[in-house]
Amino acid sequence: MPPHRWRCTTARGLKAAKELGFQRVILSRELPFETIRRLRDENPYIELEVFIHGALCYCFSGLCLASWALTGRSGNRGDCAQICRSLFRTEGGEGYFFSCRDLALGRDIRRLMEIGIDASRSKGG
Prior knowledge:
Blueprint: H1 11-19, E1 24-26, H2 33-42, E2 47-55, H3 66-71, E3 88-90, E4 93-95, E5 102-104, H4 109-114, E6 119-122
Parallel strand pairs: 1-2, 2-6
Antiparallel strand pairs: 2-5, 3-4
């Protein structure tokens, strides 16, 4: 199967991925630990990969249109222009208005291993 990006946040989505032949799913990075644990418990038949470091989008993973609208580069196609890290200037001032904190779960890697997460991912973008 060719490389494919698919936002997955539910047990139903994981089941569909398995039925389509996927062996591993990379979970959306905004999921809280308890949701990750529940998805692991409910879906032992598919490998799960979790982001442990990287940018948190002001939108939800795979649903941002800002990058495409402002630059023609689509985050939904793996080519995010990182609008959320850009400096914006307005009449009222300037700032990083879309910037969120970065994901930093390195300290929780043992907890993720204990609940059966198969792999972790660190990404700068």
